[in-house]
Write the structure tokens for this entry.
Amino acid sequence: ATTMDHFLMAYAGKQNKRIVERLRALGASAVGLTAMDGGIAIGRRKPDLRIREGGKTKVLHGDHSGSIERIEPKLLRLLMDNGYLPVVTPPAISHEGVAINVDGDRLAMEIAAALKAERLLIFADTPGFMRDVADAGSVIPLIHLDEVERIAGYGKGRARVKLLAAAQAIRRGIKAVGLLDGRGEHPLTRAFEGAGTWVTT
């Protein structure tokens, strides 16, 4: 199986359907989709990399990763207007009709902006954005947009990526973005009680 086959089985298959299962058990009319369905997210695949080695040109094929260029929210609005809760995972679809792997946080941000959402909640396995990754008590509860570039220096890896995506979401018109702990009981309730990190204007 190809890299994309494994990706589809993991995200579009197992993860998506597990989330749908949990939501339906809670009474929500959840519908599982990928960002390919209905052309929800359209983007461009990263080009193959060409290198010279031993006087020969070699082509290193990419991992089907790409970037989102456009969101088509019509299908999502249709579902929500009829009482359904869409659960959307990567991959997106390229202009050529090929599946492309895109960043899930970036996908969420683009969809939220296209739907003109007021809030975007990003859950992870950390208590929020921390000054010190080894200290769970160092969570920064509130970050204003003009502080993001400075504070992002505390973060590493995915934490930094999530904070920068949150800042981009604010610039796109979303009023507040939560970087939140998805572990434990009632993470949504805890989020609205002020847990985690909130990014705002």
